[in-house]
Amino acid sequence: MVRDSEISLIRSKSGSKGGKTTQTKNKNFAKAKIKANTEYEIEYESEYESDVLESEKKTPNMSKQTEIIPLPFNTPEFEEIWAEWLKYRKERRWGVYTPTGLKRTFKKLLRDCGGDCSTAVEMIDTAISCTWQGIFPLKPILNGKTNKRESPAVGKEIEFDRP
Fold it and tell me: Can you list the alpha helix ranges (DSSP code H) found in 26-157?
């Protein structure tokens, strides 16, 4: 036991020696203020922060830039579902559309829905109800008892081979 205490003392001395060299190397680390700020200094800092916040508000916002881009369909039902889609994205804390991203989204939406407004509304509604991050084409609907499926966007029948 005596030997254990000697080893412990030797280890603590060498450990403190290493700690001291580490602390001398880290002199540039942030240190607490010795004296607290006065009431006037606090007021001055808060005024400065409000000036900074006002200057940050003057920077252009992405959502204002995307308002210039026209909607692909000018119907009230599409405008309503699009506003609901933007609200859904905001609630999920996903980023706002950039102008380029919004243009690409509208282009893909038009391509996937085949230019049909009701299909586009249904696609957005499905994306919201399924909690998807994006808007995707609708799956083909079975057309009765045959192996043919009808695409709601184009209205053409597509034949599938059964495995």
Answer: 39-57, 62-66, 76-91, 99-113, 117-129
Q: What is the span of the domain harbouring residue 124?
A: 62-159
Name, in order, each residue with C-beta under 8 angstroms of 58's C-beta and a sequence gap of 6 or more. Answer: none
Is 108 inside any structural domain?
Answer: yes
The edge-to-edge listing of strands for the beta sheet with 148-150 is: 141-142, 148-150, 157-159
Overall number of domains in the chain = 1
> How far apart, in whole angstroms, are the C-alpha atoms of residue 97 and residue 68?
12
Strand, helix or coil at 150?
Answer: strand
Distances (CA, A) of 120 to 7, 29, 126, 153: 77, 57, 10, 9
- pTM (2 d.p.): 0.49
Instruction: Say which residues have a Cβ less than 8 Å from residue 32's Cβ, sequence separation at least 6.
Output: none
4-36 pLDDT tens trace: 888 888 888 888 777 777 777 766 666 676 676
Residue 2, domain member (yes or no) = no
CA distance 110 to 154: 12
